[in-house]
Amino acid sequence: MKTLVSIRELTKTYQRGPEKIEVLHGIDLDIAEGDFVALMGPSGSGKTTLLNLIGGLDTPSGGEISIEGERIDRMSAGQLATWRSRHVGFVFQFYNLMPMLTAQKNVELPLLLTTLKAAQRKRNAGIALQLVGLADRTSHKPNELSGGQQQRVAIARAIVSDPTFLICDEPTGDLDRHSAEEILTLLQSLNRDHGKTIIMVTHDPKAAEYASHTIHLDKGELVGAPELAH
In this protein, which residues make up the domain named ABC transporter (predicted)? Predict the structure, then answer.
């Protein structure tokens, strides 16, 4: 399988006053194109930091991150912003929807950064909402939707630009078990049926079971030897 994400000797250190806090310690990791990977570990293990680095939301203190052979660790803030808009779809625990906008308008938001005309943005948003099972909720605002439906809107927004991969940070953390299972089944379908590479942080072992591989972090280091980690 083709390698999508290649990480070598990755470190991340934060400065907190006079104290340096090293969150990641020399991570080496490969993630294949088309995989569904769960990142697990105790609170403070560095899993969200690693996710943010892969998604270009943060920059490493040292080491290399290559996505499709492109070194994102060398990019400026402006270059990273452009790269994220083209390549990464984000799904967070809290849906981050605009309360005054309909589901369709929320899904269209990433397309405002493109050259697509309004009619095409509307069409693409409708396709994305249909894909997540919300074709009948396009005109509903977030407060008219359940938590699970709001997360589906967030997933539609994440995929509407057809990104290279999805970054999901505790996507079921704010949902009841039934809604969580629906969201995980949807993510699994996007991976299996539509070829989307997904990297998901979760603390829930049941959620991790939906992924193809699970990678464990503890105190900033990989634990064990997952198939994709070198």
Answer: 5-228
